[in-house]
Every structure is written in C-alpha cells, then in structure tokens.
Amino acid sequence: MSDQAEPGARTLPPSLFGRAGQAVARGLRVLAARLWASLWQVVAVAVIMAALAAVAHLPVALALTAFVSFVAAVVLLPRQDSDQAFNDALESPIALGRTASAMHVMAEALPDPLILLSPAGQVLFCNAPARGLFASLREGSHISSVIRTPEFLDAVSAAPGLGEAVTVSYAERVPVGRRMAATVAPLTQGTESGDILVLLRDLTEGERINQMRADFIANASHELRTPLASLRGFIETLQSSAKEDNGARERFLPIMADQASRMTRLIDALLSLSRVEMNAHVPPSDLVDLNDVMDHSKDTLEPLVSDMDFQLEVSRFPRPAMVLGDRDELVQVLQNLVHNALKYGDKGGKVRMEAKHIPSLGRQAGRYAIAVIDNGPGIAPEHLPRLTERFYRVDVASSREKGGTGLGLAIVKHILNRHRGELVIASEPGKGSTFTIMVNEAGGV
Ligand code: ADP
C-alpha cells in the first residue's frame, strides 16, 4: 500500500541528480530488453564463432571481435519490436513521469513560493521562489527548520485530518520583518498520499501601501478639518453672540479669510501631488532650458521676495542647459524650494540659486545641478531623511504659521522622480540649508 502511494505521492522529481539517475537507469533497461529479445541469435553467433575458431582455425581475437560487434549491433541499434514492448511495459510510469515533469515545470513557473510536504511535514519539493524566500530550505528537511511560527505549524499538522485548505497569516522577524499568508492544502482528492501543498504570499508590501494610503487620508482630512472647524466656529459666533458686534466681525473676518486660504493651499498642493503621481511613469519629453526655468521662477517669486524683505540672487548656467522636462513642473520645484528658504529663513536674509554643470563621468550622463541655498536656521540631521515624506514637518506649528502644508518637498521629490532626477539636502543647524536638484542633460544637445 505504501509502495502504491509512493510514486503517486512523489510525482515531482526530487532533484537534478535524481532525474539524471532515472534517465541512466531507463537507458540500461532498454539495452537489457534488446539483448533479451535477441538472446537466441546471440547464442547462435557465439556457437558459430567458437566452432569456426576450433575447426577452421579462425584466430580467436578475430572470432571474439566479430562476436562483440554482433552483440553491440543487437544492443545499440534500435529495434522497433523490443523497444515497443519495453515501452508498453513501462507505459504507466512513463505517463506518470511526463505528468511529473509537466507539474514540475508548472510549479517552478509559479511566481509565488510553493512547497510540497509529506504528511509528517518533510519537504518533498520546493519551487524557485520558495528557495529564494528561504536560503536554508532543503528537500528532505522538516518545514519547521524554516517556518517556526506556531499558527503555521499547527495548520500543517491539522491539514491531513482537516481535508480542506486553510489560510493562516503570520509575522516573521528574521531574516527580515515581514507578514506572510500561507495556504495549507492537504492533497487528499484522488490520492491516498495525504501530502500537503503550501502556497506562500508576502503581504508586507501590500500592507505597507495600505497603511500609507490610510495615513495619507487621515493626515489630509486632519489638515482640512482644523481650518474648517475654525471657520465653522467663527460663522456660528457671528450668527449668534456676535451678531451685532461690528468689532468682532472686523477681527474675525481676516482670520476666516486666512483659514480659507489655508484650505485652498492644501487642496492645490494635494491636486498637484496627485497630478504628478498620475504621470509618474511617463517621463517628460519636451526640451527645456534650465536657464529659462530659473528666470521664470525668479520672476514669479520676485513680489514675495520683496514682500518678505529678502534678496534672491541667481547665477545661471553660462550656456543653454537643455534637459528633457516639463517646464511648469520644473518651475514648481524651484518655487517650492525658494519659498521654503523664504518661509524658514530669517527676515532680511539672502537666498541664492546657483547653477552648476556636472560633466559626464564613465557611464554616468552629464547632469545639471541647481542649488537653492539659504542662511536660515538649518535642519537637524535626524530630520533630513524624512523631509520629503508627505506631511512631515520639523515643527508643525511653525510650518502652519508660515502657511506650510507639509507637501512642498513631497511634490519636489515626485517631480524629480518623474524627471529621473535627484534631490540632495545638506543642512546643519545654525548654518543654513542647501537643497540641490540634479537632472540629466538631454542627450546629443
Ligand atoms: P512645508 O509646507 O511645511 O514647508 P515642505 O514639504 O516644503 O512642507 O517641507 C517640510 C519641512 O521641511 C518643513 O516643514 C520644514 O520643517 C523643513 N524645511 C524645508 N525647507 C527648509 C529650509 N529651507 N530651512 C529649514 N527647514 C526647512
């Protein structure tokens, strides 16, 4: 009974060596079958050769050579009758073998990790994604050597008795923190084997994206809800207790206008972000001169710069600096960076926009860099890696007070990603900040 179960249960060839061994054994059995089918001719030729050697003094070496050549011809030349008979005899194992290799190819082609276990939890087969997931996964070893989580091991032990697939999710801390879902299915239908199929799915990335989406919506709603609540409060006051109070109206209206502008800014920033994200996979194809982008940004920022009592110095590229880009988006990048320098810098300060060409180096294409440099308060190093996250702010109150949305640098990062460009931030508290954008020069221009 176990002999019957074994070939069915082990339909997937265990290894390359195993398969090579099976092929050699099958070849030897074919040769033996041909020899057996021609046994009487072989015996007759042997007798004739012996008689010729004894009676007609045929040299023994010659007689032996002739005999060996005959046997070789019998064994090596294909014989339709004996080969057919042999194949007939082996028909069901061959069919099984074919099914096995088709299943093997299918299992290997699956994008998700798949492991076949014996009822006792021994690994009988694992496909390439499973081997990629667990470096130490070996056929023959117990599954608990790679997945130790009790929920999963319980599902494996219960599988043969349960008779149906179950999916369990579990968290792993080593080698890397991740969340996995395992579908554990006993293979009981049409077979007595009771082997267990395990299909694994990595949930980490999906859960991270869902979490980011939830955080984003929570942040955006929170940012909108605060000015909205303030506006509603003022409206209610003006409708009730301060109905006839001209002084209160005079005080409240500018604050209400301020809150409304804050909401408008936030909605504009959210729309900007979503527009850039929508086009993220379409690289821009227009030829744009970065000198023109710098000039245009300076012109549009000029009123704000003088309002805030700043000086904006611009040093352009000595020659046209052509890149493949979206002019409006690149202008927005420089506007956001200069606006931040004005917002967070000290009144009466100086902001510089400095252009620099970085010649091509090896396989790295030539690049154009524009640095926005301020002599403001600077940023502590622990904040630098997170500044481009949506709604991340070093000081939330100060950002809000200065009309910030927490989305400016996220928009900059997304626009540069679309341009296959880069943002480098260098800053030290008390020594100002330098935000440098880099974009590849347009090839052949
Ligand atoms: P915000 O709308 O709050 O300015 P950003 O995404 O543009 O949002 O910037 C994120 C945070 O980075 C800001 O809240 C501020 O704390 C910090 N920051 C950005 N630029 C500067 C700068 N030039 N100097 C000091 N801090 C800055």
List all distinct small molecules, including ions and cofactors, that are bound in this structure.
adenosine-5'-diphosphate
CATH architecture of the largest domain: 2-Layer Sandwich
Main beta-sheet annotation: 5 strands, antiparallel
| CATH fourth-tier homologous superfamily of the largest domain | Histidine kinase-like ATPase, C-terminal domain
Helix and strand composition category: alpha+beta
Q: CATH topology of the largest domain, what is it called?
A: Heat Shock Protein 90
Task: Give average pLDDT, whole number.
Answer: 87
Rounded to the nearest angstrom, the radius of gyration is 39 Å
> Can you tell me the CATH class of the largest domain?
Alpha Beta
What is the molecular shape?
elongated
Measured distance between first and last alpha carbons:
77 Å
Helical stretch tally: 14
Instruction: Work out the strand percent.
Output: 15-25%
- Please mark out the parts with pLDDT under 50 across 5 or more consecutive residues, or reply none: 1-14
Strand order of the largest sheet: 2-1-5-4-3
Tell me the series of helices and strands, N- to C-terminal: HHHHHHEEHHEEEHHEHEEHEEHHEE
Query: In which range does the helix fraction lie?
Result: 40-55%
How many individual β-strands? 12
Instruction: Indicate how many domains the architecture comprises.
Output: 4
